[in-house]
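S., here's the first fold you wanted:
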Amino acid sequence: MTVEFRPVKINDIDAIVEEYERTWGIANAVGADASRNLSRRFVLHYLEPSTYGTVATINGKFMGLLLARVYGDKVLFKQVQKMLEEQEAKMSSKGDSLHAKALDSAIGMGQIERKLEAMSHINDLTQAELELFIVSPDARGH
């Protein structure tokens, strides 16, 4: 089995969400549906500003991802901004406290993230920022 690396594609989102959920999902705190929706929201949040992305696969199976942002470079997928807005609207429209709690926490974390980025002058002082790095547990030993 050989690990293959390729550029991330827009149709990789579902596989990325699945691994994000496996790695960082919080179903025990907010329920399976809210957790999965939150995982999708976070993946879109990190993908939206990304200018570089590489996926690792073994025999076509998703094994990992690296997303990075180089300030000033063209984003990978313009349509992700709209997808993120739609995901947040979907979560808001659920009308239950679990989705509301999950979305409020995510938005709050995003505000803290932007504040820390501004305070650290990351766009001025670094060549790139790592947006998201995931390695599937299935990749261990390869």
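And the second, which I think is the more interesting of the pair:
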Amino acid sequence: MTHNPLADLSKQLILRFGPTMGGQDLYAALGFKTYAAFHRSQQRQALGVHVFKLPGRRGWFALTVDIATWLMKQSNIQS
């Protein structure tokens, strides 16, 4: 059986956050210290992940799997 770091990370994040991430969990996972910094980047369309609104909910959300994929890409870029 091969080790798949992306699958492992995705599983860990989904177990902790569920299928979507929002609010402080979302902006912290993307490396922002504040919502204002996240929002500025989102307005410039520079987040690196697709974010969306959910009906009846406040704020922005992203798929947890997309966050895991983005994090793995960032770690590979830095290597």
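Why I say that: The chain has one domain: 17-78. The chain has a mean pLDDT of 93.

Talk tomorrow,
H.
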